[in-house]
């Protein structure tokens, strides 16, 4: 179905991975979509956001049932072997991913093995992503800006929606304006690690780039970032739905919802034009 790629040309941290994690979790809980969250980074940040050693042993009980114990030897390395054997099919990818919410959210984390294998691993990502889009309703891709440019372009070209992230430094905003991205109809900009006290706020930046709508953003949130480090993101978003409206931590849920809604709206808009 839809491939949604989170990407940025910013050299500095904008919270791209954490934004993708937040969107995937909120979408899985509040929408009836089958989602794959896929990382092309050489880290295990996504795995760390959803699981710790205790959870892997006991499983996490959520509103969609227990999270299964996962095979830590699965993942992109196993899928690479399948792809190189010309046996990759859309429905086989789920066998190598890790389930967060059954029938709602699965994770395919980045490769953290031998550096000499990186080039081979990265080379199969376009094929894996394309096949995944034939099985899942939405494939959310966390695209590493430092991988081979040809591979990056392949992934961007096959993406139905590109979530282009930047921070509140005007140099990064200018880079977006100067790039071809602003002219593409499938690009949705957002601001990561947002500081609401900055004079370069969403309204001012939206006005500067001549956007008809205020750009969505995801603020830095201590509780969310700690949850990402402790494998508690799923718990956090489940609990946020029960919190009273005056709690300041509800902002992370509200902001994530707005980004998710912009993605769903863009998918629907593009489908209407096809």
Describe the structure.
- With 274 residues, the protein is α/β, with parallel strands linked by helices.
- It has one domain (2-273): P-loop containing nucleotide triphosphate hydrolases (Rossmann fold, 3-Layer(aba) Sandwich), CATH 3.40.50.300.
- The protein contains eleven helices and ten strands.
- It has helices at 16-30, 45-50, 53-58, 76-84, 118-132, 149-158, 170-178, 202-208, 222-230, 233-240, 250-273, and strands at residues 2-7, 35-39, 61-62, 65-66, 98-101, 105-108, 138-142, 161-166, 187-194, 216-219.
- The strands form two sheets. Strands 5-6-2-7-1-8-9-10 form an eight-stranded mixed beta sheet, sandwiched between helices. Strands 3-4 form a two-stranded antiparallel ribbon.
- Strand 9, helix 8 and strand 10 form a beta-alpha-beta unit.
- It is globular.
For the largest beta-sheet, the strand count, sense and barrel status come to: 8 strands, mixed
Helix count equals 11
Write out the CATH superfamily name. P-loop containing nucleotide triphosphate hydrolases
Count of distinct strands = 10
* Low-confidence region ranges: 60-72
Can you tell me the CATH architecture?
Answer: 3-Layer(aba) Sandwich
Shape, please?
globular
Sheet with the most strands: spatial strand order: 5-6-2-7-1-8-9-10
Write down the CATH class.
Answer: Alpha Beta
SSE class: alpha/beta
Summary, kept brief:
This protein has 274 residues and is α/β, with parallel strands linked by helices. The chain has helices at 16-30, 45-50, 53-58, 76-84, 118-132, 149-158, 170-178, 202-208, 222-230, 233-240, 250-273; strands spanning 2-7, 35-39, 61-62, 65-66, 98-101, 105-108, 138-142, 161-166, 187-194, 216-219.
């Amino acid at each position: 179905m839809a491939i949604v790629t989170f990407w940025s040309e910013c050299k500095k941290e904008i919270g791209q991975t954490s934004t993708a994690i937040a969107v995937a979790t909120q979408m899985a809980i509040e929408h009836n979509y089958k989602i794959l969250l896929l990382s092309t980074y050489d880290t295990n940040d996504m795995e760390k956001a959803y699981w710790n050693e205790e959870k892997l042993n006991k499983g996490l009980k959520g509103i969609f049932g227990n999270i299964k114990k996962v095979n830590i030897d699965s993942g992109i390395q196993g899928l690479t072997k399948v792809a190189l054997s010309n046996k990759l099919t859309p429905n086989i990818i789920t066998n190598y991913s890790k389930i967060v919410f059954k029938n709602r959210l699965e994770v395919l984390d980045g490769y953290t093995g031998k550096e000499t294998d990186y080039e081979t691993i990265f080379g199969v990502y376009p094929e894996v992503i394309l096949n995944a889009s034939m099985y899942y309703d939405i494939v959310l891709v966390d695209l590493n800006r430092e991988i081979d440019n040809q591979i990056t372009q392949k992934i961007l070209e096959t993406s139905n929606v590109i979530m282009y992230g930047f921070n509140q430094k005007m140099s990064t905003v200018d880079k977006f304006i100067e790039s071809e991205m602003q002219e593409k109809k499938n690009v949705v900009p957002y601001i990561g690690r947002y500081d609401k006290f900055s004079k370069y706020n969403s309204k001012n930046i939206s006005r500067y780039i001549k956007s008809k709508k205020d750009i969505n953003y995801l603020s830095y949130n201590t509780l969310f970032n700690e949850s990402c480090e402790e494998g508690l993101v799923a718990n956090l978003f489940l609990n946020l739905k029960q919190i009273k409206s005056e709690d300041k931590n509800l902002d992370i849920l509200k902001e994530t919802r707005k980004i998710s809604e912009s993605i769903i709206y863009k998918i629907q808009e593009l489908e209407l034009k096809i």
